[in-house]
Write a structure and sequence with these properties.
mainly alpha; about 170 residues
Length: about 170
């Protein structure tokens, strides 16, 4: 029998997982907007690009196929953005349409890194370069968006490195 990534798995499992990822994104979006008003520390965590990169890496690495990795990353970020702005409407928060459009475009474009990051599995040179690239992007985002080194950003970068390297230490492709 020809090997497929879905061997032994039901189609319903994939649909269920995708819905759970969308709900996780929505929950994080609501939590992020709520935190903007009531918890500055939690707002730093949920509103940070570092968390989004970390979650995107986890989803991409542990998805069954590269297409599903791209879908999962888009669902997570799309759910976060939709829920964030719907919560902003409910809480009567101020926001600009340029932000909505910009973050929505970013969520849709996140499919490309999600797809590519699926190939970061294993111990190949390509996989190591992709992992290094993700960590470099996170470090650059920390300096550009935060204006310097922050402990929370460093913790998220270390968690991302751990997830990326766990596959390398654990034995390669699944």
């Amino acid at each position: 029998m020809k090997y497929t990534p879905y061997q032994g798995r039901k189609r319903e499992d994939g649909i269920r997982n995708s819905l759970l990822i969308l709900l996780l994104g929505a929950a994080l979006g609501v939590l992020g907007k709520w935190a903007d008003f009531y918890s500055p520390w939690l707002a730093e965590l949920t509103g940070g690009v570092q968390l989004w990169i970390f979650l995107g890496c986890v989803l991409a690495l542990y998805s069954w196929t590269p297409r599903r990795a791209a879908l999962h990353v888009v669902l997570l970020l799309g759910g976060m953005i939709c829920a964030y702005y719907v919560t902003a409407l409910v809480m009567k928060g101020a926001w600009d349409w340029r932000y909505v459009i910009g973050w929505s475009v970013a969520a849709v474009l996140s499919a490309v890194p999600g797809y590519l990051l699926w190939y970061a599995k294993g111990r190949t040179r390509r996989a190591w370069l992709m992992c290094a690239g993700v960590l470099a992007v996170q470090a650059a985002a920390m300096f550009v968006l935060s204006g310097g080194v922050r402990v929370l950003d460093l913790v998220m970068i270390l968690l991302t490195a751990a997830v990326l390297l766990l596959d390398k230490i654990g034995g390669g492709r699944r």
